[in-house]
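Structure, all two chains, one model.
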Amino acid sequence: MDELDGNGAAGLLQEIFGTDMTIAVATCASCGSAAQIGESVLYAGGPGTVIRCRRCEGVLVVITQVRGRHCVDLMGIRALDMPVGSA
Amino acid sequence: MEGTAVPRRLSSGPLSWEVATVTEVTSETPTVRTIKLGVPSWPGHRAGQHLDVRLTAEDGYSAERSYSIAAAADDPVAITVERLDDGEVSPYLTEDVRVGDELEIRGPVGGYFVWETADGGPLLLVGGGSGIVPLRAILRQREHSGSDVPVKLLYSARTLSDLIYRDELDSYHDGVEIIYTLTREQPAGWTGYTRRVDQALLAETAWPAGKDPLAFVCGPTSFVETVAGGLVALGYEPGRIKTERFGGTGGS
């Protein structure tokens, strides 16, 4: 499966969170490195959407669609920060 | 897998699917088309952003893909799409779509791979195959805004006929240097480069790191990895290298 950029999930993330999440900085719960979601690794070809840390490949976000609902697993993100007023 | 269900009502942000009308279709190469879209409620976009296209089959199966917007902020919305043989969406967009057809779109999205005039430069744009698309939007944005930020564009394609926007790219002069490399086949008398982009080619063609350039790299995953790694090795500040990888087998 191709490794893309978190960028490629911008539309899905914005549908769920109501704002551009690709410029949000996520701190990886596995290795502690911080990077914008847009530069993280995206796997979009499978049954769900998976975003991984570009440094340690730890899973940051998993999004699946089940019976008409988006199910979002954020266990891999320890902290999230983004510009005030960006919403 | 455990997940957190997000109620639909929380997704009522500014972004939703809407219907766009195809207003113009242009063949760029045998496998690439530019599709102009009329979107009544388009809120405007920034160079480098993308939009999502959703196709739904009669049985309800739907597929979504994200495409770079090929247009500057003040241009009509357009996407340029390369046909992928095993694609679910691109064959339709590159072969079947006609003027007047309606497409479901969502956008603009993404604020990461974006250049605005105030971001300055000098700009290094490196594109592989259809990775040229958002870089073309950035070039047009620079031109339309009257910016004099110096630009080098390094564009890698397989053959001459695979080059997208060639006439437009060749029309740039003041402050814009276009450097082509054709990696598979070159016409007689070709004076551009003939090899794949690697650190050595970047060292020959890119701005020296001392100029504190801002780099945008778009292409197939392996292309982007090579270029981004090469630029870091040449001393580019990692935070000033923006990358956008795309899937498929897009040639570079």
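Residues 27 and 73 of chain A are 15 Å apart (CA to CA).
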